[in-house]
What does this fold into?
Amino acid sequence: MAGRFEELTVASEVLAGNPLGDPAQRPLQVYSSPGVVAGAAGVPTVYVLQGFGGQLDGWLARKPFEPLFVERLDAMFAVGDCPDAVVVFVDGWTSLGGSQYLNSAATGAYTDYLCDEVVPFIDARYPTSPRRERRAVTGHSSGGYGALVLPMLRPDTFGALIAHAPDALFEACYMGDLFQAARVLREHYDGSYEALFADVHRADRFDWGRWGAALNIYAMAAAYSPDPERPGGVLLPFDTRTGRIDAAVWERWLARDPVRMVAGHVEALRNLVHIHLEAGRADEYLLDVGATALSAELRRFGLEHSFELFDGGHGGSSFRYAPAIRRLLATLQDLGD
It folds into this structure.
């Protein structure tokens, strides 16, 4: 490689004792471009967030006949005409499959983990710029969700974002799984998530076709509607035996929908130096619909951004990540040091 790729470990204080009993020792992967290796200082940082169900070592899982994302990054920087950067791959995994990078009484304080622990950890060890305007976040799917909401919730930390097929417009992207979960629970588990989880834990492989939708909905409930009276518990937005929507809990989910969040975070979004949204126009989870609605909401408030729908679905789009980072870094370079 022209640059350098390192695997590190962060000892998190805020994740210690989390309700799921997940590890507080967390892995990090860090790519430094060739100029950083050669001694460049004050460089931008790009934080990469994985999607639901993804673990950090998944970035190193090679698909046949395709380069890894980090190899695409290295090839892009090796040409010599892309501004230097440190690219950090962050672990947001939970034993439910993901955290949505939110603070939750049901999973742990993942916003605080990233913003208050990982970012200072990186800044103390790499020649990165301390300016928020030169610190960006990007991700795909649930990682795209995190890339959208973290700059709204913590504008002190991030000044730019790229969101690939982000979870957005919740009635589009979650309702299908919600009713699929209700069907699975009704047909096989008498409406009981406890029975479903027991079945999962007994199995020697995870059957996404049977359990994927139900687990996704439970994990989203852990992120969006933790039970305030039961630490570690969740409030579900539907009746597990009938599928009927619980309007009060569903409203809690909608309050976390990036499309709905825009109105309450206009100034934070206006202060971002780069916003890019994109999705495949045939996304199987209707995240293209969510991205379109989000772009329209940003336009409604006069918030500058770029938006693209491309031919494709939800997966198989990792070849788009490096070019999007290249465009981001060109914007950040224009800011100067």
Notes: The chain has 13 helices and ten strands.
